[in-house]
Amino acid sequence: MIIGLDVGGTHTDVVLLGEEGLIREIKIPTDHSDLFSTVLESLNQITSGLGSKRIRRIVLSTTLTTNSIAQKKIPKVGMIVSAGPGIDPFLFQTNEYYVPVSGSIDHRGREVEPVRPEEIKKAARNFLDNDISHVGVVSKFSIRNPAHELKISEVLKNSFEKVFLGHRISGNLNFPRRIATTFLNASVYPIHKKFFNAVKRSLKKKGLEVPIHILKADGGTMSIESSIDSPGQTILSGPAASVMGSIAFAPDNQDALVMDIGGTTTDMAALINQIPVLEPVGINIGGYRTLIRALEVHSIALGGDSAITITNGILTIGPERKGPAMAYGGPVPTPTDALVVLGKIENSDREKAVSGIKALAESMGNSLEDTAQLIFDSVCKKILAEANAMIDRINSKPVYTIHELQEGYKLNPKDLLIIGGPAPYFADQLEKMSDYNVHVVPRWGVANAIGAALARTTSEVTLFADTEQGIATAHEENFSKKVDHDYSGRMAVENAYKLLRKKALRMGANSGDLELEVLENQQFNMVRGFLTTGKNIRVKVQVKPGLIHEYDSVVNKLTR
Amino acid sequence: MLRAKHKTGLVFFPAFDWAISPTHPEREERLLYTQDQVMEEGLLDIENIIEFKPDLVTLDDIQRVHFCVPDVWSVTTESHFISAGGAKKIGMAVLDGRVDNGFALVRPPGHHAMRIVHGARGFCNINIEAVMIEFLREAYDINRVAIIDTDCHHGDGTQDIYWHDKDTLFVSIHQDGRTLYPGSGFPDEQGGPNAIGTTVNIPLPPNTSEQGFLYTMKHVVMPILDDFKPDLVINSAGQDNHFSDPITNMNFSAQGYADLTKMLKADIAVLEGGYAIEGALPYVNLGIILAMAGIDYGQVREPDYDPDKIRQTTQVTRAIEKIGELVLSYWRQRKPARERILNQNEFFERKRNVFYDTDGITESQYEKIRVCPDCSGALKIDSSSDRGNRVLAVHIPRKACQTCMDLGHRWYESADGNTFDLVLLQDRPGNKYLKSDSKQRKE
After folding, report:
1. What is the third-level CATH fold of A78-190?
2. Which of A396, A400, A402 sits opposite B78 (nearest CB)?
3. Nearest residue of A to residue B40 by CA position?
4. CA–CA separation, B249 vs B179, rounded Å?
5. How far apart are CA B7 and CA B293, in angstroms?
6. Could you tell me which residues are beta bridge partners of residue A5?
7. What are B72-122's pLDDT values in tens digits?
8. Which is catalytic among the residues B112, B153, B154, B174?
9. Within its chain, how far is the Cα of A459 from the centroid?
């Protein structure tokens, strides 16, 4: 049996899955001031009365790192940044203790100007004087040559508890994002480490010594042990849980959209043959643009609990949530109240819902039912418009080859899968107002926790070769080897796959779930003075986000 | 988050799967390191820098500008449709007000492509700036356009297309034609009889550095632009004036290019040449983008930049000052020069040969234009190439007067089917692009 747990803004959902399908599901309110108790309590409830031996795997998706960044409850860290020529590095300043230093590496990874150890020592003294024990080190083009980051970390060695190096965090270009991502990793490191070590200890005490996985923003998992060194990957895993909970029910030979209609927000994502579309670069959080791999999730501030107001006769829904719907004791009318008035939702305080919607109806000079219908229609219309905008955005992403421009994939979803609290009430209306076939995902209330439970381990490897310089590197994996002029794109893909397999297994993957694919494979002849002097090869491979195969039969039982 | 002062649009289309030939300078790798630099600097994350996907231009867009022999598909590839489409996309974004200015970082380039196209010249098949400009003139309310060509090579293709157009100011700053391809672009090339003065050539001596370029911009180009009062300013932003460029002899720098961009304030920049793909392009493009966006570019510096090593001699400085004076004096005399022409013959004729170096084609042209007091004049070109194609190309200009319109149609209709393999008409006022080949005529 496996457990999936998803800490949400309002509720924490936990499921227990086994041979027979969904065995248990629990929803408890999230206590943001004490996430640890929330997690522990929900795990206690879901396992109560079960022998601990029967649990094979636990996957957790939490808001721990997301919240600490959003609420800026993060400890002081030190940042050392070596930029060289280009945009002034102070324009990317992340925090108070941010020290640009000398040193420059060019786009092919060649040193232009060395780093100066005395500058690093000075920065280190300043960090120590301010009780900083976590440091991030980033140099421009470090993914092409990490020598400067390594040299700086050598100087810092033994003085700090943990030093994060930019080139180990992602294989992608983008210096400002590398700075921000390294900063976020260093910042959430102690919080994340303390929390998950405590979770591990408590579960051990209960006799649950099973593999514990943490959900990442890209819809994949990693082992609790590997998460300690890359805590940034756990940021914004919530929306990914919902998407993963839906993919088993998406068509496997065409595109689909997934929508999680919640209380405060509606999150949407796109699937191509059951594989979620990834963000091209990385997520944005708390004003930081990052290199954190993530599903492309479009989030709008509109949900069942959005506050409805009327100003100058114009109805506005959201963006704020002021509490639950009036039908559930809330202070202001919401779309959920409209659904209650329309008779779609029962088992609630209809009178209170009517009183809220009636007030709106009167100020607009409409009937109660018309107003409720208008609210409902507006919400659906807005959701569909945003979905179209997201599709347009995905389809208008620039491409850099003639082939891609002409043959490039155009997303054209026919199916819309919806999950979340109010999902079943929206299905008919969304289908009526659009060309989509709308499906409510089975177990829509806890699909997010099911998604977490079933998600497989994902990872990505970027390999770069420059046969003129005679090197093939994947510095993120601490990999570098000498190659000769015959080194080819095919060999690069082979090398990258080998590294990827090793990395995925280290992060906790089952060998049966290693579905690998090439995301990028470019090869350029390097021409100098009318002669071909080498090849420049860029390869990016990934384990496709998806579900673990071991539980294929379980998924089939969920549909019932 | 970093925010640009000006909303700047970018089309980046490096055509990573297209080259003229495997070891040609115009190759897949050309913008690879520029892309690396642009990505690593995080330029596309800056608020107000907006990347657009290029559209493809249409056949009409190309035929509005070019007479392609024997047809458009024979002298172009998909990459040309995309690179011109990239420029067009930026032009539309600027004129729709979606951005304040924009830069089409595309390849292949276009400024050596002339009105008649038998093949590729100077790595160019179609003139991407002209295709963009003439589309914009059809679709938006713009008339007067200035093109400032800062590529190291004379923009002879753009010059040819706008030679007779009095509403287009074409200024080319380039290395002296006596020392570099294509060997033209001297100050006395000032435009045809109906557009005398609106072609401005400023040949600079080899080893001109930042000082000379910026002097020329400030004291010659900017005053001429101020006089001309264009609705739209285009920069043909070639980057081969760089001190490290392998096929030219100038001493310009990334800082210098950025300063030039800041001074010019072009609405639209379009990448042209530039073949120092590692040591120059990544830094020059970075400088240009930052300057257009209004972001500090003071720390943009190429690795081997040494201002002392590339400083120009006083001899070069004096030569530049002299050229500048000559160019300005021609500019000031453009109106009396036009008066003198109007009092001469009704028609102007010229004969010339055009060499297509990239494809090894030689073309002979005999051109006839009506000297018109009211419009840019009906134009016909009798063109034959050593590949055996002889065509008659008739151009009726935008805003043509009735007399020139009638004349153009007469030329087209009365062309002798036995003499020409192909007769082509560009009827701009009628927005019609017609052709008839000899076989059809005989039938």
Report:
1. Rossmann fold (3.40.50)
2. A402
3. A174
4. 9
5. 6
6. A14, A60
7. 999 999 999 999 999 999 999 999 999 999 999 999 999 999 999 999 999
8. B112
9. 13
Q: How is chain A split into domains, by residue range?
A: 2-67+191-242, 78-190, 460-544
Q: How many residues does chain A have?
A: 560
In chain A, which residues have pLDDT < 50? 560
* Alpha-carbon torsion angle A500, A505, A507, A508, nearest 10: 150
The answer for B 28-57 residues in CB contact with A (under 8 A) is: 28-29, 32-33, 35-37, 39-42, 45, 51-54, 56
Here the tokens at position A30 are 């999230």
- Degrees (nearest 5) of the Cα angle A78, A79, A81? 155
What CATH superfamily classification does A2-67+191-242 receive?
A: ATPase, nucleotide binding domain (3.30.420.40)
**Closest Cα to residue B132, out of B76, B70, B82?**
B82
Whole-model pTM: value is 0.94
**pLDDT grade for B443, boundaries at 50, 70 and 90:** very low
Supply the pLDDT for residue A459.
95
Q: B214 to chain A nearest CA, in Å?
A: 22
Q: Are the beta carbons of B300 and A525 separated by less than 8 Å?
A: no
Please give the DSSP secondary-structure letter assigned to residue A170.
-
Minimum CA–CA partner of A105 in chain B: B303
- Determine, for residues A525 and B28 on separate chains, whether the beta-carbon distance falls below 8 Å: yes
Place of tokens 């927005």: B431
pLDDT, tens digit, 9 for 90 and up, residues A57-96: 999 999 899 989 988 889 999 999 999 999 999 999 999 9
The CATH number that domain B3-334 falls under is 3.40.800.20
- Ramachandran region, residue A529 (left: φ > 0; alpha: ψ -120 to 50; beta: rest): left
Predicted confidence (pLDDT) at residue B267 exceeds the cutoff of 50: yes
ipTM, interface predicted TM-score of the complex: 0.93
The count of residues in chain B is 443
Specify the domain boundaries for CATH 3.40.800.20 within chain B: 3-334
Question: Can you give the pLDDT at residue A421?
Answer: 82
Find, among A169, A298, A172, the residue nearest to A232 by Cα.
A169
Per CB-CB distance under 8 Å, the chain B contacts of A524 are 16, 28-29, 32
pLDDT single digits (tens) B374-398:
999 999 999 999 988 899 999 999 9
Q: What are phi and psi of B103, to 5 degrees?
A: -135, 120
Tokens of A162: 């943990």
Q: Which residues are bridge partners to B385 per DSSP?
A: B363
Least CB–CB distance from B23: residue in A174, A405, A532: A532
Buried b (16+ CB within 10 A) or exposed e, A387-402: beebbeebeeebbbbb
Q: Which residue has the tokens 């151009």?
A: B395
The span from the CA of B284 to the CA of A246, in Å, is: 48
Q: Name the burial class of residue A532, with classes exposed (0-12), middle (13-18) and buried (19+) by CB atoms within 10 angstroms of its CB.
A: middle
